[in-house]
Amino acid sequence: MGDNLQYEDLIRYVIKVAQEKIPKEEQKYINSTRLNKMTILVFKELNKNNINTNRFIWGYYRHGFYSRSVSNFLKYNYRDGFNLEEAQVKDVNISNDAKNLIESTVVNIKDFFLKDSKSFCKWVYGEITPKEYQEFYFNHKKMERWFERMNDELNKEAININFKDKNYDISSLISAYYFTLGHLEDLEIIEIFRRYTDIIELLILKLKNGANPSKVKIFLDKLNLLYINRIYSLLPPYTYTIDGDKTFAEREKEIHLLKIESYKNSINKELDKIYKEIKRNELLPTLEEMKNQISEIKMELPRDSKSLQELYKDLNH
Amino acid sequence: MSCGFFCDTGVIRGLCDKLDAHNESCEFFFDKYPIETFEYVIPTTVINELNYFKYKQTKEAARNPLHKIYFSYIRLVQQYIDLYISQMTHFECPETEKNNLNDVIVSIQPIIGFDTHNKQNDIQITAEAIIWSEGSRNESNSLITVDKRDIYYKKDKIIRICKKNLQCDLQIYFVYLPRYFKEKY
């Protein structure tokens, strides 16, 4: 075939076909995030059949596979928010081969985009995302849910949290999360993640030892916002997975790396500030409380567990 | 009597890590001389050494996952270390003492040896402890260590050579915590 599409025409035609093929009453489920993903899948299908799309780029970002090209197009053309039902699209001038492939692809995949939120996430992260990143995204969703659960519990009059329950066991979740950050090459980001999660663990330990839940909630809310707005943006494998038009992909990578640098600076300052406030509010565990917690966890360790000294010897070799 | 204790890296690890071979002796010492009442001093060398391994371990965990609960344990120990360090006096050699520090380092290099990175750290820590003790207002100053071979066993030689080269009457004790524990427990 050897066609060349303009990226705007691709997006417009996907919108047009989605409007034709998806029943009107279900079009409300296709928001900008879902349309973004639908377009990427169509792009990939076109690519497989040697139909190239100019200036189209995508990668694995905050909510799985994501295209900056589609995102910018929708923001520019639908400033009041994208709504598939009401979206108006101009006519597009593309080959019949491209049109047919786009139509057949949309028909094949449309049902996935009508799933409820939970099922849709499961499909995106569990089936479309490459295996090496799947657990990373699932751990992110677990982190989001953990903050929601803690928020619900700490809003109650009398809190009754079983910290060993897997829904509340933040230490286990953090460990699992670490193990899925192997794609990160920037050690500063891993260090930020360590500082951030250390603060959460210290706060929860203090809560376990009788800290005022309302006070703890104030800081958990701050940490949750910091996670959603900044920290999580550092973690996905976006810069390593940007694909599509080579020139634009390189440019996008540079822009994204600059954004990450500015985020790192602001996050470090924010973490310093939060830590100082937690300390001032006497929400850091005492040495005794730390010692007791360590004794408690030690009882559950596998028999052959090494001391830090032995572990460090291994790291040195 | 006011006492000051200058900490070696192994002491901090031994104190905080229940899996460490020296945990019992370190805990015993810190229980006997609580940090709330006595001055504990930690040099930049020790802080840097502990942080270096903390960063390396964190990076390593992402690439070579450990058992989940074991990794939770390691993080907790490192958080405990950070908390303890934050309550200690941080020693940085004053500019006016840098020449003396270098003299002490050069004096004890042939005694401890400097063929490994660990030994170089031991020399630095021991030298800083000596400089600290000379400027300290405590009635009693001790370097507390769990390093028998490179520091404790060589203490007499170290003190002798430093007294001679610094031309002063050094007043620093070297306390090997496992031995202290054995004698006092």
Structure overview:
The complex is a heterodimer of chains A (317) and B (185). Chain A is mainly alpha-helical and 317 residues long. Chain A is elongated, with a radius of gyration of 23 Å. Chain A contains 13 helices and five strands. The model of chain A has no long low-confidence stretch (mean pLDDT 93). Chain A has helices at residues 7-21, 32-48, 68-77, 96-109, 117-128, 131-154, 170-178, 187-208, 213-234, 238-241, 246-280, 287-298, 308-316, and strands at residues 4-6, 52-54, 57-61, 64-66, 243-244. Chain B has 185 residues and is α/β, with parallel strands linked by helices. In chain B, 60% of the residues lie in helices and 12% in strands. Chain B is built from eight helices and five strands. Chain B has a five-stranded parallel sheet. In chain B, helix 1 (9-16) packs across helix 4 (68-86), helix 5 (98-112) crosses helix 6 (117-135) and helix 5 (98-112) runs antiparallel to helix 7. The model of chain B has no long low-confidence stretch (mean pLDDT 92). At the A-B interface, helix 7, helix 8, helix 12 and helix 13 of A face helix 1, helix 3 and helix 4 of B.
Task: Describe the structure concisely for a colleague.
The complex is a heterodimer of chains A (317) and B (185). Helix content of chain A is 65%, strand content 5%.
Rg of chain A over CA atoms, rounded to whole Å, is 23 Å
Helix proportion range of chain A: 55-70%
Q: How would the global form of chain A be characterised?
A: elongated
How would you characterize the largest beta sheet of chain B? 5 strands, parallel
Radius of gyration of chain B: 17 Å
- Count of alpha/pi helices of chain B: 8
Number of alpha- plus pi-helical segments of chain A = 13
Largest pleated sheet of chain A: 3 strands, antiparallel
Series of secondary-structure elements of chain A, N-terminal to C-terminal: EHHEEEHHHHHHHHEHHH
Sequence stretches where pLDDT stays below 50 over 5 or more residues of chain A: none
Assign an overall shape of chain B.
globular
Question: What's the count of strands of chain B?
Answer: 5
Category from helices, strands and their pairing of chain B: alpha/beta
Reading the helices and strands of chain B in chain order gives EHHEHHEHHEHEH
